[in-house]
């Protein structure tokens, strides 16, 4: 294994959790580090009781939900549009939001035709059955990923080791030929290319799809195609967010900062297809809303034509290419009742 010299301190609790995941040689894959940093029951970024989402100084990042109820209005309109395409009655469908914050859904306080709103926060058991709209917003990018580095004509996996003082050291080890992931790593990658694979995001999609439900899958997130990840992002996509500042300091503020990885729309879609879903191509958030909520957009713009209200400003943030319109994408999939 090759290690960097810069140590990163941890707490005794985090060190204990990481040591339990170490291989015989002490190597801890980055995916395991990310899982502990984000989801440890005691100190994980997403499991500890804290404010994470919003635009205030105490939060760490903001999402479309931070722009007011207009995002929920558009989500509801888009879901209804898809149900109408499949001649489905919205009143028969539960709206289930996976990864919701503090027991809320994006449709809380918004008039909607659905049977029930069901928030499923982090750590809540997934029990999906019957007719559903399964919705998520920035859920999949927060799942642990494996990180790889091209060195010469070989691939190395990134991870960490712990020393006697419970300090982390970034390290790498060769990818074993028997590792199933080896077949997915591009053989034509240039020396120094960094590839971050969102394996847990794909696994989560497969878990969601394996449940006995039918209806609409709707996910908003940021991601790329397999070709973009494997050939057009040479510095990888994993980033840290701490108090609204993006950085590559992945091992600072462990448990107190967000870690994200771009998802792969191709492999996530494949996980859904294997479970019988018909999957649409991922669209930019801007294109998705224009395609699926045209009448709602026209109504909002007409109502707000004479003023720059918070609602209109939020709408512009959601759609404008330089804001969230191109940064985020939306993926839809549909499965008929068996």
TrEMBL record:
<dbReference type="InterPro" id="IPR038375">
    <property type="entry name" value="NDUFAF7_sf"/>
</dbReference>
<dbReference type="InterPro" id="IPR029063">
    <property type="entry name" value="SAM-dependent_MTases_sf"/>
</dbReference>
<dbReference type="InterPro" id="IPR003788">
    <property type="entry name" value="NDUFAF7"/>
</dbReference>
<dbReference type="GO" id="GO:0032259">
    <property type="term" value="P:methylation"/>
</dbReference>
<keyword id="KW-0808">Transferase</keyword>
<dbReference type="Pfam" id="PF02636">
    <property type="entry name" value="Methyltransf_28"/>
</dbReference>
<dbReference type="GO" id="GO:0008168">
    <property type="term" value="F:methyltransferase activity"/>
</dbReference>
<protein>
    <submittedName>
        <fullName>SAM-dependent methyltransferase</fullName>
        <ecNumber>2.1.1.-</ecNumber>
    </submittedName>
</protein>
<keyword id="KW-0489">Methyltransferase</keyword>
